[in-house]
Backbone:
């Protein structure tokens, strides 16, 4: 099948294709109108990513990827938080939305590519509601994250303030006690050995107190995190530590590193390269422990929906705090042992000097702790007061736009394409299943007969049946002349001068073909007799406007056939009408019985020798059995098929019925053939003599 065949199929079934397109587009328009118009409002917010800075980038290169991943994960977490029930419920309350309004809202939050900006799309049937909600959502998110940051900073500041008050009170008391003891018992200064021993003990005790203070602060933060997690996740949260070989190895490694760190700090100070290297190693071990702890907590709370970003973030914070607590517990134990070890040299000192040195150590520790607490208190106090950039609103929704206008047009376009595709599929399926005969090729393939002529469909001819006589310069007349020329060779080869023209069913135009073929053969100079052998629907006498007296009169009334033969205005053409078919009860008779009468054979033998050609216009083969009765008398049959009207099976059945009688099949004629415009152009160019202009008209124009 080439492109021309496909194009013909499309033209043939254009009504089906157009109908499918119209129906599918009408359905799409119907649903478009039924669906309410939806408006979209867009706002944007830039989130401040809280990337973790891991120590040891130089020594552990894989840690450099963790910070970038944390940054990406934080943006995704903030996007999920904007869609969480907690943030959206705050926006609902601020706008006072009803349940129906809440159900009508659809929120989409997507990170802008390669940025920390989140795009918030709110879709609703109410444009104003969509705009207000898009703005309220980013505002409540900003307020929630800012308040959370401030609340934590204020809580930490309050904690360090209370600790600072206790330390200042204890420092004043220690200073008073030292002065009183020195006045009463000591005069002069300590030796260098005592000062070094006391300083060593002082350093370790200062580290121990700092670790205890951090442990207490971590305990307080864990308690607060558990309260927040319980409010977000209403379940019983258990503290379970999974014991496995990996965690034991990591904790053992961390303990060893903590001992090395404490001794290195006591010897070299906080900024020595060895101290910084050990700190980086400890940070790496802590990171691995935190990942393991987070996985344990996920197992404990596995019944919770992990898609909740708030829950997931709280769980991560709790895992970090628990690892910090374990590390601090181990650190306190290690430093406690180092303090006890550093006290041993002091046992050999004089009791008074040792006591005074202990006063100095205690006062020094308290001063250090006081300075540290003051710094932390001021830091957290300022953090709670200074505005932060947790989330900066970059774009507010200034209105809502109807995104469905373009979508409706796109829907109609897609529906049109879909309808076209459905129409094409149905057309090709119908073409595949259709066994109607349309072309000469179809007839030759189905009947294995040569198509001797193709008579084009010309609607402009009207009801005039004698086309070849009245309009000899038309394409139809030329087609009959071409049929005559081909048929003459077939008749000459088989020495046949009398033949039947029939068809499978009624309304195929076999009488039209019989009449005009007889006219063209007479115009050629042959003496032709056209016999109307269709007694049920005779047409020949109407074409020439003569009485219908003929064959039945000869058989029933024993009349001479020659007196019923009529010469027409067409030279060399005579006709023999069928005659009336008797319907009276006294003489009931049917046409097939008339053709079985022995006198019929004598009549046709007389006609055969009197004319060059005798053409019989008979009834359709599938309608009555007249052709079967005549087949023993007439030697040949010309078969007429109307293009696009007959099924292959019916035509083949009719042809088989004719051949079963032993009569010769001369060939087939395709009537009402559909030809291309170029075919008519050539015929009209040659045969149109009605115009004196050099421009010749084309059919249909």
Residues:
């Amino acid at each position: 099948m080439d492109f021309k065949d496909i194009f013909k199929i499309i033209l043939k079934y254009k009504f089906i294709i157009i109908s499918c397109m119209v129906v599918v587009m009408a359905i799409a328009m119907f649903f478009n109108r039924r669906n309410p118009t939806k408006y979209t409002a867009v706002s944007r917010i830039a989130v401040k990513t809280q990337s973790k800075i891991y120590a040891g980038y130089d020594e552990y290169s894989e840690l450099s990827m963790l910070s970038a991943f944390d940054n990406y994960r934080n943006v995704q977490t903030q996007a999920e938080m904007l869609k969480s029930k907690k943030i959206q419920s705050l926006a609902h309350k601020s706008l006072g939305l009803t349940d129906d309004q809440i159900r009508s809202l659809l929120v989409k939050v997507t990170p802008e590519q390669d940025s920390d900006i989140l795009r918030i799309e709110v879709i609703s049937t109410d444009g104003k509601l969509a705009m207000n909600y898009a703005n309220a959502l980013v505002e409540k998110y900003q307020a929630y994250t800012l308040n959370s940051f401030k609340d934590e900073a204020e809580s930490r500041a309050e904690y360090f303030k209370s600790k600072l008050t206790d330390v200042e009170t204890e420092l004043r008391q220690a200073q008073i006690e030292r002065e009183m003891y020195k006045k009463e018992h000591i005069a002069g200064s300590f030796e260098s050995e005592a000062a070094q021993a006391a300083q060593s003990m002082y350093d370790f005790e200062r580290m121990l107190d700092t670790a205890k203070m951090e442990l207490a602060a971590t305990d307080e933060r864990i308690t607060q995190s558990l309260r927040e997690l319980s409010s977000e996740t209403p379940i019983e949260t258990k503290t379970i530590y999974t014991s496995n070989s990996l965690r034991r190895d990591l904790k053992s490694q961390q303990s060893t590193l903590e001992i090395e760190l404490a001794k290195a700090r006591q010897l070299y100070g906080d900024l020595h390269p060895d101290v910084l290297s050990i700190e980086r190693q400890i940070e790496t071990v802590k990171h691995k422990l935190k990942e393991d702890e987070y996985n344990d907590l996920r197992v404990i709370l596995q019944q919770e929906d992990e898609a909740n970003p708030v829950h997931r973030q709280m769980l991560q914070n709790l895992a970090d705090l628990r690892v910090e607590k374990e590390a601090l517990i181990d650190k306190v134990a290690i430093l406690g042992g180092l303090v006890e070890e550093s006290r041993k040299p002091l046992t050999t000192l004089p009791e008074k000097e040792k006591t005074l040195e202990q006063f100095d150590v205690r006062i020094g520790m308290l001063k250090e702790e006081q300075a540290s607490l003051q710094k932390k208190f001021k830091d957290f106090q300022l953090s709670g007061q200074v505005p932060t950039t947790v989330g900066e609103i970059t774009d507010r929704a200034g209105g809502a736009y109807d995104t469905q206008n373009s979508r409706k047009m796109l829907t109609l376009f897609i529906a049109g394409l879909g309808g076209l595709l459905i129409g094409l599929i149905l057309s090709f399926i119908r073409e595949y299943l259709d066994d109607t005969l349309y072309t000469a090729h179809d007839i030759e393939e189905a009947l294995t007969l040569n198509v001797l002529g193709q008579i084009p469909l010309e609607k402009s001819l009207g009801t005039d049946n004698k086309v070849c006589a009245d309009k000899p310069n038309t394409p139809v007349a030329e087609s009959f002349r071409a049929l005559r020329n081909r048929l003459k060779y077939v008749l000459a080869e088989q020495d046949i001068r009398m033949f039947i023209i029939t068809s499978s069913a009624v309304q195929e135009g076999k009488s039209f073909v019989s009449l005009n073929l007889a006219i063209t053969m007479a115009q050629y100079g042959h003496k032709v007799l056209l016999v109307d052998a269709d007694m049920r629907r005779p047409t020949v006498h109407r074409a020439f406007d003569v009485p219908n007296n003929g064959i039945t009169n000869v058989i029933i009334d024993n009349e001479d056939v020659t007196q019923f033969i009529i010469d027409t205005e067409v030279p060399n053409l005579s006709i023999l009408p069928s005659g009336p078919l008797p319907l009276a009860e006294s003489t009931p008779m049917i046409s097939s019985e008339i053709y079985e009468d022995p006198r019929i054979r004598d009549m046709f033998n007389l006609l055969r020798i009197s004319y060059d050609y005798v053409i019989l216009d008979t009834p359709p083969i599938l309608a009555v059995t007249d052709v079967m009765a005549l087949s023993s008398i007439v030697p040949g049959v010309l078969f007429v098929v109307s293009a696009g009207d007959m099924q292959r099976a019916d035509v083949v059945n009719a042809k088989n019925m004719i051949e079963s009688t032993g009569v010769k099949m001369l060939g087939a004629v395709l009537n009402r053939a559909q030809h291309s415009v170029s075919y008519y152009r050539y015929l009209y160019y040659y045969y149109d003599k009605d115009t004196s202009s050099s421009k010749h008209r084309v059919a249909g124009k």
User: Anything to note?
Assistant: The mean pLDDT is 76. The first helix runs from residue 3 to 12.
